Amino acid sequence: MKNITDSFVSVGHWPSAGSFEFNTDILATNPINLSVVLGVLIFFGKGVLNDLLDKRKQRILSTIRNSEELRRGAIEQLEKARFRLRKVEIEADEYRTNGYSEIEREKVNLINATCNSLERLENYKNETLFFEKQRAINQVRQQVLQQALQKALGTLNSCLNSELHFRTISTNIGILGSVEEITD
Questions:
Q1: Residue 165: inside a domain
Q2: Cα dihedral angle (63, 68, 70, 73), rounded to 10 degrees?
Q3: So where does this one cross the membrane (predicted)?
Q4: CB–CB of 56/32 below 8 Å?
Q5: How far apart are CA 160 and CA 167, in angstroms?
Q6: Between 20 and 30 A from 106 (CA), which of 24, 87, 137, 141?
């Protein structure tokens, strides 16, 4: 350590005779060289370093601004997408509700139409059965009446003689005459 302090102290005692020598003592020359280099670097490199740091700062700030703008844009797009999603969900609920009510309405209409058709078919069936029954009854009546008339004619023809026949005709003419007098 003595050499370092001696080199600083002996600066004032150097001979002015023009000799130049190299100081080979590393411990004595390195701190001086380093302090000179650092001083020069700080003095001359200060502006360059400030410029580099300012440019880096501006890039970082512009990157942050761009990121903020992109973030705001993403938030706006997210809000728009959420709004559209809510709108679509509301429309889907309306369609679903309307669809269900329309389906129920169509179901009720179909059931009512089917019931009406069944009632009409039941009425047609009942009317057809009634007419067929009436037709069958009328046919049976006609057949019974024809058989009764044929039997009565057969009985009358076998039992009637000409005198009885004459009296029946006379009585019927008398009855028709009295009916004619009443109507006049």
A1: yes
A2: -160
A3: 32-49
A4: no
A5: 11
A6: 87
Query: Could you tell me the two tokens for 91?
Result: 């429309």
pTM for this predicted structure: 0.37
Residue 20 domain-assigned (yes or no): no
Residue 85 lies in a domain: yes
Is 10 part of a structural domain of the chain? no
Please identify which residue in the block is written with the tokens 């679903």.
96
How many domains in the chain? 1
Domain that holds residue 73: 29-183
Per the prediction, the chain carries an average pLDDT of 82
Calpha distance 47→50 (Å, rounded) = 5
